[in-house]
Amino acid sequence: MASKVLLDDMEPWLDLQGKVVMVTGASSGLGRDFCVDLAKAGCRVVAAARRVDRLKSLCDEINSLSLSTPSSSSGSVRAMAVELDVCADGPTIEKSVQRAWEAFGRIDALVNNAGIRGNVRSPLDLSEEEWNNVIKTNLTGTWLVSKYVCIQMRDKGHGGSVINISSIAGLSRGQLPGAAAYASSKAGVNTLTKVMAVELGVHKIRVNAISPGLFKSEITQGLMKKDWLSNVAEKTVPLRTYGTSDPALTSLVRYLIHDSSVYVSGNMLVLLCLASLFSHPSNKGYARDVFKWCRESRNVSQFGITKNGESAHHGWNYRWIVGYGHDAENFSVRHYSSHVNNKGARELTNKVLRNIPESVKVVEVGPRDGLQNEKKTVPTSVKVELIKMLVSSGLQVVEATSFVSPKWVPQLSDAKDVMEAIQDVEGASFPVLTPNLKGFEAAVAAGAKAVAIFSAASESFSKKNLNCSIEDSLVRYRDVALAAKKLSIPVRGYISCVVGCPLEGKVSPSQVAYVAKELYDMGCSEISLGDTIGVGTPGTVIPMLKAVIDVVPIDMLAVHFHDTYGQALSNTLVSLQIGITTVDSSISGLGGCPYAKGATGNVATEDVVYMLNGLGVKTHVDLEKLIMAGEFISSHLGHPSGSKAATALRKVTSCASKL
């Protein structure tokens, strides 16, 4: 008993009996940790967030706690949930604050924890929408919630404490590459904290900010299991570890709520264990390397830690979540890698990647080639919205639909309606598939400005897929090409089964070259070489490409790989090394071929863009928006995305906490 009294005298903030605390962003991560800890300290908690379902489970957890405090009988309510969207307008937030105040009749302390990290982008790549979203959530939301809570504190005359959860990103010593909006918002929070402290002190309202560094929480626990992140903590933090919310953060929050901190206001309390102090012996390489920006200011270097006179890079690139690589001094590095920056490594890398093009055109075939193979018919409105989302991501060519007989491909029977709906969509071209002159005329009547024809390098496949021989199909397409030429409409030629056929097996490169030459001679502006059943490997793709390049200019060729055997990205990479600059892909890996049994989806557009970003190749495509488009169509189809990159990145970002 005596020891407890002594402990209470030394650390009075362990007991916060009678205090009512409102915590924003309470549904997960640090916010949830704060709520549970404060409840254990005797506080009554108003948990506020958008996710009301998670708030209910949080409040149930708190109200079921067995607390050893005098006023906490088994039936007493210790926590109540209030729906609060910090991105809402002022009047809406004011109403939420009023409900929070009425929950227990007062608020003694406010913990502004709600916030978002946003995408990792350079200031030149950051969109106005992203900027506004981060600023509105992190800064404007903090101000509005504080405003309406502090008005109540002032009017009721009992004062209180406001605690803003900021970040080291808002400090001059901790500005992070790729975090322009986030760092600016947190710097704004810090300034707001100081101004409010000065102006609200007369009302006995204290305002402080806590700036945590690398902390483990519910949101980041998945990340903390990664070896590479442990390496970062060990190399850049003097204590050789990352922080935990309890007790480092929770104790500080308790102290700032307790009356013993009555003379503490206007402070920026930093919790990062010197990790961002460039002069610290552990960080000699950090200050020199971390702010190097690469091609077009899009890429930032990895952490460089000096050891035995060499610069060892430990695979933590702030660009890794969107696949950007690192090409300073012509040295390309994949994330999650370790390398020694020496001449031999640079020479090897340059040799391997020297023929990779500066930019690549990505042709999106999902709305046509992807959806035609789905059992579920997609509503026209969903197709149109998908196309718009793909265009908004930066894709400049989106194959919209196919004017084939609804009898053979019923999934695309609404081709005319789709074309009518996208006539006013700008920023991309929308080629459509036309199997014959009749289909071409229907496409033109519907407003098509570009068309595509499809042949095969396999005689058996041509007869099964097109119901005619290769020669007959070429005769048919010459009529289409001639009609298109008269209207100045570009024609794209597809060749199926360029390395293998489900009926004949291996396909001769010379046969592919023959069909490609015929399409070229009839006036096709671009010829796409398709591995329809996905059996190709670099060993079979290279001789095929060599044969075709001998008869068709390489800048008129595109590659179209399916990922049946997991070889699509490998085949794409070797095609780039040979000089191909146009790659077909399908959002979420949708697709296959109705007439090729066992042929799984096309290579996912997200995976292609992720790889190209890692190579430093320009695509002008926003990967985050691309992933959103993939999630949109996958949800309507009722199955998960076929993109490995999208799936992995979503798992990472779902548990990523602000740094």
From TrEMBL:
Q: Which GO terms describe its molecular function?
A: hydroxymethylglutaryl-CoA lyase activity; metal ion binding
Which pathway or pathways does this protein act in?
A: Metabolic intermediate metabolism; (S)-3-hydroxy-3-methylglutaryl-CoA degradation; acetoacetate from (S)-3-hydroxy-3-methylglutaryl-CoA: step 1/1
Q: Which UniProt keywords apply?
A: Lyase, Metal-binding
Q: Which GO terms describe its biological process?
A: ketone body biosynthetic process; L-leucine catabolic process
Signal sequence, renumbered to the chain: none
Which residues span the membrane? none
Q: Which reaction does it catalyse?
A: (3S)-3-hydroxy-3-methylglutaryl-CoA = acetoacetate + acetyl-CoA
Q: Where is the Pyruvate carboxyltransferase domain?
A: 360-627
The family line of this record is: Belongs to the HMG-CoA lyase family.
PANTHER family membership: HYDROXYMETHYLGLUTARYL-COA LYASE
List the protein's name: hydroxymethylglutaryl-CoA lyase
The organism encoding this protein is Cannabis sativa (Hemp)
